[in-house]
Amino acid sequence: MTPKATIRAEAERLFAAFQAAGAIPVDADILLPAETLLDLYGEDLRARAYVTHDPLHGEMMLRPDFTVPVVQAHMAHGADPARYTYLGEVFRRQEHLDGRPREYLQVGYEIFDRTAPEAADAEVFALIADLLAGLPVTPVTGDMGLLMAAVAALDTTDRRKAALMRHIWRPNRFRALVDRFAGRVDPSPSRLALLQQAKGGIAAMIPETVTGLRSAQEIEARVAALVADADAPPIPAQQVAILDRLLALNGPLPQAVQVLDDMAKNMPALAAVAQRFRARMAALAKRGVAVETLGFEAAHGRNTLEYYDGFVFEFHTADQRPVASGGRYDALTARLGQGRSIPAVGGVIRPALVAELRGAV
Questions:
Q1: CA count, 13 A, side-chain hemisphere, 123
Q2: Could you tell me which residues are annotated as the binding site for L-histidine?
Q3: Alpha-carbon gap, residue 145 to 308, rounded angstroms
Q4: pTM for the full model?
Q5: Model confidence over 61-93: pLDDT tens digits?
Q6: Which of 64, 194, 204, 282 has the fewest beta carbons closer than 10 A?
């Protein structure tokens, strides 16, 4: 067989395995409305997606992944609970990643089930682990809910917490904000100059009609927000230390649970997440996963698509190429469900890499 046919055959094998596990096969459009995707991921998505214009439907994107269209279809007319699988191409711009394909097959498995979220997490992970058994891949897990819970529990303003939540998936920007909100770094000279002008009555200096993207009212509101932020007390040092310790957490699952229990003594909001963490670990063990050696990294998932809000995982090669990945995205179903929501988790496998690791291509 040609390499392309070999990859297709591997994809069909994985697709059949997901169907045998109880998933219903679904299709998704290749061209998707850009507005929905940009609303979910932000304008950063343009840098890694192919954008085109349709004369009737406006701006469209070549499918960057399957999760959003599958969620939309399920929330419109899906059963509860439900399991889905899909096979098809996704498209990613790779301008700064030479050698990575711009079009490749994905095979996925998604669970929509409100009865036992931790058991569903374990089901997706264990099923993919079984399909990759014997291949030279390393699994790693994480939980975006930990960092989100820690940010929500900070003793600081709602505006600051919202900024941190927005930049959780941008580690460098997140760190810069933590340092500034904690008083670890001094404001830049330009920021200080703006604040001095604002406190001196800059709002009165703005003309009634402003040429540009923002109105005078919007500028005044922005300046007022900057002044309020500058006057806010710093995030307590003990809470910043917990954030630092959380982001550095890296080790086997049982060890990570012990560390989380210790941190929860000083930040009670982490206790509920740690309890879910423990329930997931038990569900993984029940499915035969060797949790004693399964790696956990609290920072894992921060460079993925931005809809994950709980358990995340990846199986990667020695050179860090992701063969399979996935996670929980409960909030996404609420955003796309028009008032309805359901806990959901899923994962994808890249059959081209599986075929390569099997020596078939």
A1: 19
A2: 65-67, 92, 106, 110, 302, 307-308
A3: 9
A4: 0.88
A5: 999 889 999 999 999 888 889 999 999 999 988
A6: 204
Indicate the length of the chain as a whole number.
Answer: 361
Alpha-carbon span 338 to 332, nearest angstrom: 11
Place of tokens 């191409």: 89
CA–CA distance from 287 to each of 16, 127, 283 (Å)? Answer: 20, 9, 6
Q: Please say whether the structural domain 1-118+129-135+349-361 has been given the CATH code 3.40.50.300.
A: no
In Å, the largest CA–CA distance within the chain is: 75
Q: How far apart are CA 300 and CA 256, in angstroms?
A: 13
* Of 246, 300, 295, residue with least CA distance to 274: 246
Alpha helices for the chain (secondary structure H):
3-20, 34-41, 67-77, 117-131, 144-152, 158-166, 171-181, 189-199, 216-231, 237-247, 253-264, 269-286, 330-336, 351-357
pLDDT tens, position by position, 289-348: 999 999 999 989 887 667 899 999 999 999 999 999 999 999 999 888 877 899 999 999
Query: What type of residue sits at position 177?
Result: L
Give the tokens for residue 57.
């439907």
**What is the distance between the alpha carbons of residues 108 and 124, in angstroms, rounded to a whole number?**
10
Binding-site residue numbers are 65-67, 92, 106, 110, 302, 307-308
Nearby residues of 324 by Cβ (< 8 Å), 6 or more positions away = 128, 132, 137, 314, 315, 347, 348, 349, 350
Q: How far apart are CA 124 and CA 126, in angstroms?
A: 6
99 φ/ψ sector (left φ>0, alpha ψ -120 to 50, else beta) = left
Strands 103-112 and 344-349: antiparallel
Pairing outcome for strands 138-143 and 51-54: unpaired
Residue boundaries of the structural domains of the chain: 1-118+129-135+349-361, 159-234
CA separation, residue 112 to residues 87, 130, 135, 302, 332 (Å): 18, 21, 29, 23, 12
CB proximity list for 137: less than 8 A, separation 6 or greater = 315, 316, 317, 323, 324, 357
